[in-house]
Amino acid sequence: MNHLLTTQDLDRDHLTMLLDTADGMVSLLERDIAKAPTLRGKTVATMFFEPSTRTKLSFDKAAKALSADVMSFTASSSSLTKGESLKDTVLTVQALGVDLMVVRHGATGAPWRVAEWVDVPVVNAGDGAHQHPTQALLDSLTLRQHFGTLDGVKIGIVGDIRHSRVARSNVFAFATLGADVTLIAPPTLLPVANSEWPVHTTSELDDALTGLDAVYLLRVQSERGGASVFPSLGEYRARFGLTAERFKRLKPDAVVLHPGPMIRGVEIDAVVADDPRSLVLEQVTNGVAARMAVLYHLLGGEADV
Known about the structure:
alpha/beta; Rossmann fold; 2 domains; five-stranded parallel beta sheet; 14% strand
């Protein structure tokens, strides 16, 4: 594995290897001293050209837990504000002596371009509405911990799928691991071309709910035009929000996931978000372990962890 840019080119064996490694990282993080010397001497650059809380902090913690140094970059305080190009920016960071770049960018395909320009591994931490592979890994890890396997697990991904890089990454990871995936959204929030995706689609959340083992809720991405395709957020909640009433109709052992940030009262009611069957905080915790696994494999970690 030279880079991690998408889940579409990861086969089941590769995904399983990463998840197995992440399970080991979970155990490491539960130790009194949650640190291993595995990547000592390596430097990870976290390069975020878009705002982030969970992803950036978890990559920072993941690198430090493996004893790597972290070089943190934010676009607002960089020479990009003076007109420097993306190419010159990443080449400058590489020249400072980094061993891996974690890149989030608003433009679809930007991490692929970075991977062409630099001589170090690149991890896609989210590019536009395209891909977010480490989110798919942590979500798969969370579901595998809960169900033991994803084989046959019925997962509904609900909401603004058209503008969601999380949905695209998760669809292929979940399906490759054996899950039965259904996209649930108004037609205007489904991808224009999804005929080749390994999914079912429906616009009727109430009809689909009772058959699901896991409900994966997405935020309406207003910044990418998601809120412009239905009358109001209230209308969206009425048709596609996981309200307390809808939550009661789920199977007793069904779980709820959300990549964050959550907009309580729109796609998810507060009582649902705080219920024990909500795995949102487990997702956050597993984000560190999943990203540790990626850094470990890309940087050739060999020491025991």
